[in-house]
Design a protein that fits this description.
This is PQQ-like beta-propeller repeat protein. It comes from Hamadaea flava. InterPro entries: Quinoprotein_ADH-like_sf, WD40/YVTN_repeat-like_dom_sf. Helix content is 5%, strand content 42%. The chain has 445 residues and is mainly beta. The chain has a six-stranded antiparallel sheet, covered by helices on one side. Strand 28 and strand 29 form a beta hairpin. The radius of gyration is 23 Å and the shape is globular.
Length: 445
């Protein structure tokens, strides 16, 4: 699934799964590089002289729609009382199929030939729901498997969608007196294995990084018993792959890239450093060897890059620590005015980033009525920043990238108030033959 990697203002939760889903026009862009200073002469001078790559235009979307790309299929997800989803064929722009959703969308997972959609009724008191309300909501939740090509319903099951494993297994939370997590074969809906859900703080999904933070994937189920026994399970087979012991009385907070973080201490700080809350990190790949310990009077340390965890406090910038050593990597002051620092911190301006974790991220110019939109490639490895302009479009508001497609959304120019999606094959991007040197001033730095 596609994750635009939206920067949150507050302490983020565990890595996603994802999301795998973003409502364009509602949520902010992934990151941005500048604070309004890009000269129009740069854009005009770098415009491709020859015809650009083929652009497929698909119109008529609501500005409140969400989007999911599965292979060569674009899913438009409609919110509100008449919630539903519509599938479009990206190579042609033609509509394939449409399906209503009885209840609001609760989750979606790309399983290759099928897409799993979880729906659930709205909670009566979403801010402070009771356990009885949560149990009733789970009992009324439904997971439906749709054929991506035809929209045909393959199967339905009661429960809530929790995640997926390499498009091989779907993970569901099943309702009932004893709640369970179930591993489901996606094409037929049959159960591979089932296991009781442990209390909060005693289980998590373990995540690993493939090529960057945005391409992290879940690879194990981690359970922590009260006596300190740690159990790791293979998510495809349900078999126990590893057991170990840590000091008892802890709660799982981090299971990230081969490192486990266990929190100890009271919920409320006492002022005694020997007693107050702290997180101890263990190396899963080295028989749970102790790595380091950090005091955390409030909040937690959460993953914020492939090899870092962050502490989020009153400072708008988090404190960054090396995942395996605990070294404080926080960058302050003038050091933050670097290209990569701006890219990571999400400075909003003219250039906005589509895929921040790559060494040559795709960037696009923010919407402006008086100029065309541009998508380019930024080289962050060079001492002098360089940008290669790839394609010009109508003013665009946001872009996302998949393995095969670049998709950009425009809300700015349509007088009907509807949105337009532009789709371009990545293989067809008409790149200029050179990377254009630019200055920090050009990028708003």
């Amino acid at each position: 699934m596609i994750d635009l990697g939206v920067i949150e203002d507050h302490e983020p939760g565990p890595p996603p799964v994802p999301p795998w889903l973003r409502a364009w026009g509602v949520r902010r862009p992934l990151v941005a590089l500048a604070a309004a200073g890009l000269c129009l002469a740069l854009l005009g001078a770098a415009a491709p002289a020859r015809p650009g790559p083929p652009v497929i235009t698909i119109g008529g979307f609501s500005g409140q729609d969400g989007y999911q790309v599965i292979g060569d299929t674009l899913l438009s997800l409609h919110w509100g009382p008449s919630s539903g989803m519509t599938a479009y064929d990206l190579p042609t722009g033609e509509r394939r199929w449409s399906q209503p959703l009885g209840d609001p969308l609760d989750g979606i997972e790309d399983l290759g030939e099928v897409v799993l959609v979880s729906t659930a009724p709205e909670l009566r008191d979403p801010q402070t729901p009771t356990q009885a309300q949560l149990d009733a909501n789970l009992a009324a939740s439904v997971v439906t498997a749709y054929d991506v090509t035809t929209g045909e319903i393959r199967w339905t099951r009661s429960g809530s969608l929790y995640g997926s494993v390499d498009r091989k297994i779907a993970l569901l939370r099943a309702p009932g007196p004893q709640k369970r997590i179930e591993a489901i074969e996606p094409s037929r809906g049959t159960t591979r294995w089932s296991r009781p859900v442990q209390p909060d703080g005693s289980w998590q999904l373990g995540w690993r990084v493939r090529n960057g933070y945005l391409s992290s994937h879940v690879d194990s189920l981690v359970e922590l018993a009260k006596d300190g026994t740690v159990t790791l399970l293979d998510l495809v087979t349900g078999a126990v792959t590893q057991t170990a012991h840590v000091p008892p009385g802890g709660a799982l907070t981090v299971a990230w890239n081969g490192v486990l973080g266990v929190r100890y201490g009271p919920a409320e700080p006492t002022g005694d450093p020997a007693v107050d809350r702290h997180i101890t990190f263990y190396d899963v790949d080295a028989d749970f060897a102790h790595l380091w310990t950090a005091a955390v009077p409030q909040g937690d340390l959460t993953p914020c890059s492939p090899d870092e965890v962050c502490s989020w406090g009153t400072d708008p910038q988090p404190r960054r620590f090396d995942l395996r050593t605990g070294e404080d990597r926080t960058v302050r002051g003038d050091q933050r005015n670097t290209l990569f620092g701006r890219l990571q911190d999400g400075q909003v301006g003219v250039w906005r980033v589509v895929n921040a974790e790559e060494t040559h991220p795709l960037v696009y110019s923010g919407p402006a009525a008086h100029r065309p939109g541009w998508v380019g490639e930024l080289d962050v490895t060079a001492t002098t920043p360089r940008v290669r302009l790839l394609i010009g479009l109508s003013p665009i508001d946001q872009c996302l990238i998949t393995v095969r497609w670049l998709l950009c959304l425009s809300n700015s120019t349509n007088p009907t108030g509807t949105s337009v999606v532009y789709a371009v094959r990545r293989a067809d991007l008409d790149a200029e033959p050179r990377l254009r040197p630019t200055s920090g001033a050009d990028l708003g730095l």
